[in-house]
Each structure stands twice: as C-alpha cells, then as structure tokens.
Amino acid sequence: MPEFRDRAVQLVRTAQRIASLRGAVQEASVLAQSSATLIETGYDNWNNGTTFYTLTLEVPIPVYVELDEGRTAIEKSIQRRISELTRTESGVSITEVVISPELADDVPSNEDIAGEQSVAGPSFWAPGHFRLFITHVSATKKAAHSVKAALAAYQIAGFVAHDDIEPAKEWQAEIESALRTMDALTAIITPEFVASVWCDQEVGIAVGRGKLVVPLRAGADPHGFLGKYQAIAIEKGAPASDIARRIFDVLVKHDRAYDRMADALIERLARSSSWEMAKKTMSLLEQVPKLNRDQVARLVRTIDENPEVKDAFGVPERIKSVVGHLGQPDAS
Questions:
Q1: CATH no. for residue 17?
Q2: Is the residue at 281 inside a domain?
Q3: Domain limit, last residue, from 70, 101, 132
Q4: To 10 degrees, the CA torsion angle through 196, 198, 203, 208?
Q5: Model confidence, pTM
C-alpha cells in the first residue's frame, strides 16, 4: 500500500470530480490543472500520533494570476474538501493547502519578453490556449465569468470584458486588442443583449474577421449577423460546466475553429502533469476531425518528451491511432 504522501494526485483528482459535480467550477478547474505534492510538516504524538501535511498545488502562471485575491478562499475550500476525503484515516491530517505558480525554466531578458509577447499576443490570453472572446451585457457578468472558468478544462482561454456596458477608455483598448487576437467569439444572447450597441459591434468585428461566432440563446433569439449561426439553447440555471462542454463540442468540430483547437489540446497534452490529465486530453483530442503535418509531429513527440504521456496506460497507443486516422500528410 503506498504511503500517504504518495497519494497526492489521487486525492486531488477525486476532489476535482466532486467539486465539478457540486458546481464548484473554479475550484475544479484549479485542481484539474495542478501538480500536487504532499509535504510532511509536523507530528503530534498524542492519542497514538498524528502526522500533519501541507498539500501544495503548482498551477500554470496564467491560472495563478487569474485567481488573484480569491486564491486564499480557494485554498481553504480545497483544504476542507480534501479533509472530507481523509476524515476516516487515522494518524494523518492535511492542515493547509498552498497554491503556487509553476516556476519558469529560465529568466528571460527584456528582449525575450518583448518577443514572446509579440508571438503569444496580449498577456490576458493564457499561453497555448484557444482564445475565445465572450461578449455579454452587465446583467450576465456572473454567468460569463463562470463559463470562462469552466472553459479552462478544455484548454480554452475566455476573455470577459469590463463589467460596464460602456467601458472606460482604457478598457476599450483592451477589448479591441482581444477582438484583434481572438480565435472565436461566443455571445450570451439575452433580451438586454439585443439592445446593446457594444455587443453588436463586437459580434460585427468577429463576423468581419471571418471568425466563428457561437451564440448562446439565453432568453432571446440571435438577431442580425447572429441570425445565420446555429445557437446553443441555454436553460435557466444550467451549470457552467455543461455550457462549456457544449461550446467545446462546437469549436472542436467546426472548420473555422478545429485547427486552433487541435493546437491548444496538443499543447495541453505536452504539458500534462499526471497520467489522468494525459488520458483526459486524449479523449478531447480524439474528437478533432483532422490534423496537419506539424500537429502530427508535435503529437508524436509528446510520447518521448513527457513521461506522464509515455507512461499513461494506453495513451501512446491512442496517439498512434489518432495519427493514423486523422493525420493528413498532404495538409499544410
């Protein structure tokens, strides 16, 4: 039987599933993208002895930054959830959860940083993710943020604009930058949305740039440019995780989005921090309709470059199967 400190990944993945089922979207997203370690921090010999542990969760830097001031609350919530899982085990206690950013491999120069920004785009986009602009009115602000958090599980970075319908001048520049660099746009269509000049402009820019638009019908039908797109009907109170999944299902199949979606998922696989993450990412990748030459080469390299991919049961075989079925040697 493995020692308690070797069960960090098992505990975290179980907590992730429970959080997701209970609608704790942000918590589930953090757990899904974390690399977990249990560190022994103390011992109390009273009543047959108790060993104390701290659970550390290393997350990608964009995830860490996104948490910001809410990080402490998420840490406490995760600590309570993990404690539920271990309450029947005697002699162990997880007293603290600490979320920290993954450390960069090196320290880039100012020139390197500038170069990375020019390639990666604005800093609000998480590197290696599909970029989805979420247009909404102020009344659906909370729903937009919940959907954004849920989309992270699919390697999709959501951009949610300023809370006001009429953004301040500095926010206009950020919104314009996001519209210039997005891969697709989704619109939460409510009766208030129909009357919003700002939202109509954002949709118009997406259409003008030839980007896929995914309308979410939440109390109102798509209008104007949106009328030609198949809308996803959203029931009142629908979990953000379900909405995120339905958005992903559209993006991963549509000819205007699947290529960038494939890039993002292959990047997720290459950075998998656990066998389970590698398996889940493969399940998503297997839904992509086609891969180009570069994607095939990158996908195959993940087997040699990441032990979590190589040693995940069945994953190398699934990669070879995907390459055989979806790889297009004559594609550009």
A1: 3.30.300
A2: yes
A3: 101
A4: 140
A5: 0.64
